[in-house]
Write a structure and sequence with these properties.
Bound molecules: CU-O-CU linkage, copper (II) ion
CATH class of the largest domain: Mainly Beta
Largest sheet: 6 strands, mixed
CATH topology of the largest domain: Immunoglobulin-like
Strand content: 25-35%
Shape: globular
CATH architecture of the largest domain: Sandwich
Strand order of the largest sheet: 8-7-10-15-12-13
Number of domains: 3
Distance between the termini: 38 Å
Length: about 525
């Protein structure tokens, strides 16, 4: 394996706005933020474009990042200043490229410390470490993507999963560079864990040690002590690790969760490892002990963190979940297949894969939606994105009506009134799917008020919502045979992307956008664009 540097991280105080200037190529070269040799390939192909994942960017969607949603791609050799504006985020968030599949290697953490004069809402750790779960690709990721699109098949898997840029000891060729986290017995460490993999939901654990989750995405949570966590692409967890075991070295490890049969090898099913090593004199056990991880297809295990996560909901970290909602939407999220006619298709049973929300597969426009909205350019998008009526079908039955299996293709968004209170029930369907759908919303964090397996029941399920201490997140895993209900106040005017963070689902069309209208007050209106917006 080649050289891989640790990802960059920026330390930001939430009360400040920082500017990152220069081309991303320069920034990355300077900080060694990506796996170099791959980065060069990516840069030759197209300049990276960055999203500030989970940064809410109040009133300023202009530098939010997703291509053809809020801006056009930054062309090779050109520059664009990416302004970061935080609102209430704290803990660990991240940034990544949002153009094609470049985010595979172009990503890093943004760490938001408590405001000056305030403390962590948990015992102060002795030290902090960043753990970025990623992937090694021998091929150019965009070539993998293009090949998948050309054949209609699942794209190839990566060549290894990584912890901080290293595949770990199970790959003898790179064993000498396995990531090591050195600890002192008796101390407590804060691990900031990010899943930056393209498609893989990951089980993660540390041998003989428990982890206490104290935060997710951009907010803190009530402590939740676990033997393992499940982390979906796009999510972050802050966990406390107590070095309270016999001084030795121990493996931490991650594997993919997938309900697809193992032989359908589009998920990386390797195990990546790193080492937690106690300082001191002792004879280390050989090999270090491996953590116990759930079986790769253990769906029950995959929902355990989601089932128990709660927000702090106290005076310093109040819960502002809307108790009632003015806009109620039901969106189905599906992976679909197209029959192949006059075409050579290499997907399941000779079909071509597609994805959709409410049976509409998102068609990317050629100028960004934000610009079209702001300057009133017609013909770029439609604003008739539908909400499905509840309980029409059993969406998780084995067969759906044909009309639900063949999506149409369109560029449709939904318009939200400023300050409307929104509930979205995201209903997974079983048309085809090997995993849950980590649905991510830009511009707003949302409260996860309920979830379940099977079809959402509009009469029964809302009665069980958690409106007391639901977690505040920006990426939530919708079970492929289940549903999740989220609530937020549409208080951020602009254009905001919502999509599945499984990259191939995004490529196939599992996305849409919201336009949040301006409020009356000048303070409730979008700010004007910067002068250096990249042209289309
Ligand atoms: Cu982390 Cu739109 O993505
Ligand atoms: Cu998905």
């Amino acid at each position: 394996m080649g050289h891989a540097a640790l990802p960059v991280f920026y330390n930001v105080d939430p009360s400040h706005v920082r500017k990152q200037t220069g081309s991303y190529a320069q920034a990355f070269a300077k900080h060694g933020g990506v796996y170099k040799e791959q980065m060069e390939k990516v840069i030759k192909w197209r300049e990276a474009l960055t999203e500030l994942h989970g940064v809410n960017m109040p009133r300023y969607p202009w530098t939010d990042g997703p291509e053809y949603i809020t801006q056009c791609p930054i062309q090779p050799g050109s520059k664009f200043s990416q302004k970061i504006i935080l609102s209430s985020e704290e803990g660990t968030i991240w940034w990544h490229a949002h153009s094609d599949w470049t985010r595979a290697t172009v990503h890093g953490a943004i760490i938001v410390y408590p405001k000056n004069g305030t403390k962590y809402p948990f015992h102060k750790p002795n030290a902090e470490f960043l753990i970025i779960l990623g992937q090694w690709w021998k091929s150019d990721v965009n070539a993998v993507r293009d090949e998948g699109l050309a054949t209609g098949a699942d794209p190839n898997a990566s060549d290894a999963l990584l912890i901080n840029g290293q595949p770990g000891d199970l790959y003898p060729c790179s064993k000498s560079s396995t990531f090591k986290l050195t600890v002192d017995h008796g101390k407590t460490y804060l691990l900031r864990i990010i899943n930056a993999a393209l498609h893989e939901a990951l089980f993660f654990a540390i041998a003989k040690h428990k982890m206490t989750v104290v935060g997710t995405d951009g907010s803190y949570t009530k402590p939740l002590t676990r033997d393992y966590i499940t982390i979906f692409p796009g999510q972050t967890y802050n966990v406390l690790l107590e070095a309270n075991q016999r001084p030795d070295h121990y493996y931490m490890a991650a594997i993919t969760y997938s309900v697809a049969p193992k032989y359908r090898n589009f998920y990386d099913n390797t195990t990546t490892t790193a080492i937690v090593q106690y300082r001191g004199y002792y004879t280390p056990s050989s090999p270090p002990s491996m953590p116990h991880l759930p079986a790769y297809n253990d769906t029950n295990a995959s929902v355990q963190v989601m089932a128990s996560l709660r927000s702090l909901a106290n005076a310093e970290h109040p819960c502002n979940v809307p108790l009632s909602t003015s806009t109620n939407l039901i969106y189905t999220v599906s992976v679909n297949t197209y029959p192949c006619i006059n075409d050579s298709c290499a997907g399941a049973n000779g079909t071509r894969f597609s994805s959709s929300i409410n049976n509409i597969s998102f068609h990317s426009p050629t100028i960004d939606i934000l610009e079209a909205y702001y300057y009133n350019i017609s013909g770029v998008y439609g604003d008739k994105f539908p909400s499905v009526p509840p309980l029409v079908f059993d969406f998780t039955a084995d067969y759906l009506p044909l009309v639900y299996e063949l999506p149409s293709s369109a560029t449709e968004v939904r318009v939200l009134e400023y300050n409307s209170t929104v509930e979205i029930v995201l209903q997974g369907t079983t048309v085809v799917s090997g995993t849950h759908h980590p649905m991510h919303l830009h511009g707003h964090s949302f409260y996860v008020v309920g979830w379940g397996f099977g079809n959402f029941d509009e009469n029964r399920d809302p009665l069980r919502y958690n409106l007391v201490d639901p977690p505040l997140q920006n990426t939530i895993s919708v079970p492929s045979k289940g549903w999740v209900a989220i609530r937020f106040e549409a208080s951020n005017p602009g254009v905001w992307f919502m999509h599945c963070h499984v990259e191939r689902h995004l490529t196939w069309g599992m996305e849409t956008a919201f336009i949040v209208k301006n409020g009356k007050h000048p303070e409730a209106q979008m700010l004007p664009p910067p002068s250096d917006m990249p042209p289309c």
